[in-house]
Amino acid sequence: xxxxxxxxxxxxxxxxxxxxxxxxxxxxxxxxxxxxxxxxxxxxxxxxxxxxxxxxxxxxxxxxxxxxxxxxxxxxxxxxxxxxxxxxxxxxxxxxxxxxxxxxxxxxxxxxxxxxxxxxxxxxxxxxxxxxxxxxxxxxxxxxxxxxxxxxxxxxx
Length: 157
Fold this sequence. Notes:
By secondary structure, the chain is mostly helical.
């Protein structure tokens, strides 16, 4: 979030959400795969969202689109995150930006989303590399233990 704020991004909240989605991988390979799938899925999802934004919106169309996209995402996300990300992108844009459709540049919103997702995914990849690196953990662990309250730390072995 700090990086997004420092860069002055308008929708800075997209960066940490993307970072969290990527960094949650169980292995470094999973983190790498997830960030790649998130970036590529978002790029394709932005094309889909661009097509959706050309539609004449009304409350019923928005509700129907939310239901259909949610069903598709819930069906796909357990099988392949990258394919689900194609549909996650238009859904999140629809939920976050529905009130402002027609009041701002569609391309500006799409570009902002892509930049924020790429930035968050790269930060998540770096964080994942740190989390899964035994040398990094060994180097940082003593400092973090000094910062943490003793009652939260496991007893020494």
